[in-house]
Amino acid sequence: MRVTDAVKAIRPGRRRAAGHAALSTVWSEQEPGRTPDEYPRPQLRRDNWSCLNGLWKYAFTDHADRPAVFDGEILVPFSPECARSGVLRRLEPGRYLWYFRTVFLRGIPSGKRLLLHFGAVDERCAVWWNGNLLGRHRNGYLAFSFDVTDYIREGCNTLWVRVQDGTDSEDCCRGKQTLNPGGMFYTAHSGIWQTVWLEWVPENYIRRMKITPLFDSCEVRIELELARPEPAEILVRGESTAYLHRVGRDDFREVREKKGSCPGSVSVSAQVALPELCPWSPERPFLYDLEIRAGEDSVRSYFAMRKFSVGTDGRGFPRLMLNNRPYFFNGVLDQGYWPESLCTPPSDEAMIFDISGMKELGFNMLRKHIKIEPMRWYYHCDRIGMVVWQDMVNGGEPLNLPFVCYLPTMFPFVTTRVKDGFYRLFGRKDRAARLRWEEDCMAAAAQLENCPCIGMWVLFNEGWGQFDALRITERIRKADPTRPVDHASGWFD
């Protein structure tokens, strides 16, 4: 960018108009009280589940004690800051947002466990079931679950959630959220903003599943984790054929120091040869159906055979590759904000419209910008045929924009002379916050690793909260060698 262009864009002396206009999409205008009710995790589907979206009671408090009275009702999973929630109030730093609802259980099946799932709660929360503290969670973009089996009872059960969120007044992961929206930064949101649901599972259920397509050998590697060994069957359905692979109890091994694994788990890795290769691409997004039965547990999923890599073309130039061929990724920067519901898509149809619209305009890639979407969004990219370059969500202290953004824009040579080990310059002087972000980065990759559409990890955006980018690149590359990693989209290389 030329300096003269930058000055013109700033337009010194211009006065910003006061106020704002309320906007909405057709999905909220047509069905203002509707909440997402589709199964929220398409790659690990079970039949026995119930959705907890809908009207909950809420209250804002200045203290950590449960409120004696409620302020009203909130439509979950929409944040209180957005119009769709029916609240339009902001959770201020240092305050608490309380959620409450009852859950009626008509019966408790024998030999089953009940899991409580949250798609995402921004930014940290504590959860109680029938007055018992289930646990706490931190990070406003990652999914988490609790086993509530030991605390349930037939009939009426109570569920409380307490939330805090400092947004950009703290060092938490926040993306483009800010307490002072304007320019390229958006309205902050908080609280429950993705689906909440219950799921009955057997005592010994599939805790984790990892799917790795091995394109060159026409195989797929399936890794399963359970509490104890169980004979398992893996059924793969292709375009015209089906293949059954069996796993015995003796094939399982104890899990040891594996990121994302459950303590006391056993795991098995099965390499399944496919009778036919149907490559996935934006032009032909073919998905294999997958069904896994392990003991009494049965889950349905899908995967795709595709390979993202870096190689050279016929003239020796480095190229991004798809399925071992140079491929031109033509994409847009996808912010994922909605006028009436902020980070929460107003409906499944809205996500489909958005992704399909980009494809109809000729794009084959979306860079998901410093935000993690609900898992159904990635599912629609998988089946519609849209590659995703996935940003990690930035954190750290408030941004020093003149240094991390404006300076390298006007003087690009600066970016090769300033290293991201100068933590104070990048708002990263807090060592505990750096370690927490790094673990959240790895957890995000583990949560999304099975999505066929994701073709690249992007660790840092424009120096925002950047630190030790090359070292972390090697760490994530070791955990997932199947995708290229862009250590920083700019500006500090």
Keyword list:
Immunoglobulin-like; 5-stranded parallel β-sheet; 3 domains; Jelly Rolls; 6-stranded antiparallel β-sheet; TIM Barrel; alpha+beta
Describe the structure.
The protein has 7 helices and 30 strands. Helix 3 (348-360) runs parallel beside helix 4. It folds into 3 domains: 45-202, Galactose-binding domain-like (Jelly Rolls); 208-303, Immunoglobulin-like (Sandwich), CATH 2.60.40; 308-488, Glycosidases (TIM Barrel), CATH 3.20.20.80. Helix content is 15%, strand content 33%. The protein is of the alpha+beta class. It has helices spanning 3-10, 26-30, 348-360, 375-384, 401-410, 431-448, 469-479; strands spanning 49-51, 54-61, 72-76, 96-105, 112-118, 121-122, 124-129, 132-138, 144-147, 155-164, 177-178, 186-187, 191-192, 196-202, 208-214, 219-226, 232-237, 242-247, 253-254, 266-273, 288-294, 297-303, 308-312, 318-322, 325-326, 331-334, 365-368, 387-391, 454-460, 485-488. It is globular. The protein has a 6-stranded antiparallel sheet, with no helix packed on it.
Brief account:
This protein is an alpha+beta fold and 493 residues long. The chain folds into three domains: 45-202, Jelly Rolls, CATH 2.60.120; 208-303, Immunoglobulins (Immunoglobulin-like, Sandwich); 308-488, Glycosidases (TIM Barrel), CATH 3.20.20.80. It has seven helices and 30 strands.
